[in-house]
Amino acid sequence: MSRVRLLHWKSTEAAPIQNLLSGAGFQVEYDEKFDPSLMRKWRENPPAVFVIDVSRLPSHVREIAVALRQSPKTRSVPIVFCNGAPDKVKLIRSVLPDAVYSTSDELIAAVKSAGPVQSPVRPADMMNRYGSRSTVQKLGITEGSTVCLLDAPRNVTAVLGALPRGVEFVEQRGDITLCFVHSADAFGGKGGVDRLRDLSRQLLLDLQAA
C-alpha cells in the first residue's frame, strides 16, 4: 500500500480527499495542524507521493512544495497539486512545471500514475526568486490586504514604501502578520526560540481556522 502525504489547510475540507484516497487503497497521512517540524519528518521518511490542495493559501503550499524540491531527501518524490483557482495554479506551475496538476475528479488517476521525478526542477528560494521585487511585493502585500504589525518601528510605513490601494493595518490577525525584532537579546537563547516557535504555531492555527 503506497503512502500518500496530504497537505490541506482546512481539516473539514480535507476529509473528502482523505476518503477518496483511502478508498482507492492508499495509506493517507494527514496532520490537522501543520507544524514546521513536519518538514524534518518528511525528509527522514518520505512518502511515495505528496498530494497538495491549492484551494486554500496557495502561496503557502507553493513555498512548502519548493522546500520539498530543495531537499535532496524529498526532491524526487512526485508532487500532485489538486484544485485551486486557475490563476493561482498557473503561478505554481510557473515555478514547478514538472509537478502533476489535477482536479478532485482526476486525483486518483494522477496519484496512481505519479512516479519518482527524473531530473526534478529545483526552484530558487523565495528571496532569490523575488529579489527584484519591492519590499511590499516580497511580503505579499497586495491590493486590499489587511496587515497586522507586531512591535513595528515608528518609521515602518517609510520602510515599506508605497502601498497598494486599500491596504489596512489592523491590531488583530490580518491577511499578513509582520513581527519586528529590535535586538538579538529579544530572541536570544532558548526562551527566544520558544517565543518564535509559539508565535509561528499560533499564526498557523489562525490561518487554519480562517
Task: List the defining traits of the structure above.
210 residues, alpha/beta, Rossmann fold, 2 domains, five-stranded parallel sheet, three-stranded parallel sheet, 8 strands, 40% helix, elongated
Explain the overall architecture.
With 210 residues, the chain is α/β, with parallel strands linked by helices. The chain has two domains: 3-126, Rossmann fold (3-Layer(aba) Sandwich); 130-209, no CATH class. 40% of the residues lie in helices and 15% in strands. It has helices at residues 11-23, 38-44, 58-70, 86-95, 107-113, 126-129, 135-138, 156-160, 189-209, and strands at residues 3-7, 27-29, 49-53, 79-82, 100-102, 146-150, 168-170, 176-179. A five-stranded parallel beta sheet has the order 2-1-3-4-5, sandwiched between helices. β4 (79-82), α4 and β5 (100-102) form a beta-alpha-beta unit.
Give a brief rundown of this model.
The chain has 210 residues and is α/β, with parallel strands linked by helices. It has nine helices and eight strands. The strands form two sheets. Strands 2-1-3-4-5 form a five-stranded parallel sheet, sandwiched between helices.
Major sheet, described briefly? 5 strands, parallel
Q: N-to-C SSE series?
A: EHEHEHEHEHHHEHEEH
CATH superfamily of the largest domain: Response regulator
The proportion of residues forming helix, as a percent range, comes to 40-55%
Number of domains: 2
Describe the strand arrangement of the main beta sheet, using strand numbers: 2-1-3-4-5
The backbone outline, from C-alpha atoms, is: elongated
End-to-end separation: 34 Å
Q: Helix- and strand-based class? A: alpha/beta
Instruction: Classify the oligomer.
Output: single chain
Count all strands and give the number: 8
Query: What is the top-level CATH class of the largest domain?
Result: Alpha Beta
Helix count, per DSSP?
9
Strand content: 15-25%
- Based on CA atoms alone, the radius of gyration comes out at 19 Å
Low-confidence stretches at least 5 residues in length (pLDDT < 50)?
Answer: none
Which CATH architecture of the largest domain would you pick? 3-Layer(aba) Sandwich
